[in-house]
UniProtKB/TrEMBL annotation:
It comes from the Bacteria. It comes from Streptomyces racemochromogenes. PANTHER family: (+)-NEOMENTHOL DEHYDROGENASE (PTHR43490), SHORT-CHAIN DEHYDROGENASE_REDUCTASE (PTHR43490:SF99). Gene3D superfamilies: NAD(P)-binding Rossmann-like Domain. Keywords: NADP, Oxidoreductase. InterPro entries: CBR1-like, NAD(P)-bd_dom_sf, SDR_fam. SUPFAM superfamilies: NAD(P)-binding Rossmann-fold domains. This is SDR family oxidoreductase. Belongs to the short-chain dehydrogenases/reductases (SDR) family.
Length: 245
């Protein structure tokens, strides 16, 4: 079993996920780069290794049960356990101009795909990786969410929360709720689980619109993945602190 701390980051071939992997690697973690696309995954692994990170590729489609099971088996063979799981993979779903998803004309298939990736994918991966996490002395789980999933902020007319996104925003509210249920289940154990908002980051996910860099967007997730024992659990954080549910 590896003496290094072991992390797995889903959707880690680019953007925020890549920077989370790079940041954890810079802290001495051995990092599994979870991604569907083989070429992009191996390119990311090569780039991380060139920067001195102990990285390995993990073929992983979070919407596919078999892929997730095989990913857990691979991490088990290569590392023996898992100390940090960062569920970063996510999609926005098709949007109209201006990032709008109008609930009155929303294609239910779009909603299904978004929920399957952003919520069910997190459950698939988390449950598959739990046996490996339970082998760790200090297991940490981070679900990458978004402040647009905050019902408090969405419902406040005085807060500018962005356009109506009837598939993406509710999927993050759903993810936040699932995070709380896991925290309740893990109460009294060493497993800490929290949600992280990266803010509006300029990546291909946002059409490279946003004031924050991927490195800045990765910071909260890295902090939560490396919490000390006794740290918070079942909470939702951004750089400035706790995000209201």
């Amino acid at each position: 079993m590896s003496e290094k701390m072991i992390a797995l980051v889903t959707g880690a071939n680019k953007g925020i996920g890549y920077e989370i992997a790079a940041g954890l690697g810079g802290l001495g973690y051995r990092v599994g780069v979870g991604a569907r696309d083989e070429t992009r995954r191996e390119t990311a692994v090569g780039k991380l290794r060139a920067a001195g990170v102990d990285a390995f590729g993990v073929p992983l489609d979070v919407t596919d049960d078999r892929s997730v099971t095989e990913a857990a088996e691979l991490v088990g063979r290569l590392a023996g356990r898992l100390d940090a799981l960062v569920n970063n993979a996510g999609i926005s779903g098709e949007m109209d101009p201006g990032w709008v998803q109008d609930p009155t004309v929303l294609d239910l298939e779009v909603l299904r795909r978004v929920v399957d990736t952003n919520v069910m994918g997190v459950v698939r991966v988390t449950n598959a990786m739990l046996p490996l996490l339970r082998r760790s002395a200090s297991p940490r789980i981070v679900n990458v969410s978004s402040s647009v999933g905050s019902l408090t902020r969405q419902a406040d007319p005085d807060i500018e929360i962005g356009p109506i996104m009837a598939a993406y925003a509710p999927s993050k509210s759903f993810l936040n709720a699932v995070t709380v249920q896991y925290a309740r289940k893990f109460a009294g154990t060493d497993i800490l689980i929290n949600a992280a908002c990266p803010g509006l980051v300029a990546t291909d996910f946002t059409g490279f619109q946003g004031p924050r860099t991927p490195e800045q967007g990765a910071a909260t997730a890295i902090r939560l993945a490396t919490l000390p024992d006794g740290g918070p659990t079942g909470s939702f954080f951004e750089d400035a602190g706790v995000v209201p549910w």
